[in-house]
Amino acid sequence: MKEIRNEHFSGERALYQADGLNISGTSFGYGESPLKRSSYIKLADSTFSSKFPLWHSEMIKMKNCMMTEDGRAAVWYTKEVNADDIIIEAPKCFRRCNRISLRNVSFPNGDEVLWKCNNVRIDRVKVNGDYFAMDCDGMEISGLELAGAYAFDGVRNVTVRDSVIDCRDAFWNSENVVIYNSTIKGKCFGWNSKNISLINCTIESREGMCYIDNLMMKNCKLPNTSFAFEYSMVNAEIIGNIDSIRNPRGGIIKADSIGVVILEQDKIDPSRTTIICHDELVRSHI
Question: Among residues 204, 210, 271, 213, which one has the least CA distance to residue 242?
Answer without folding.
Answer: 204
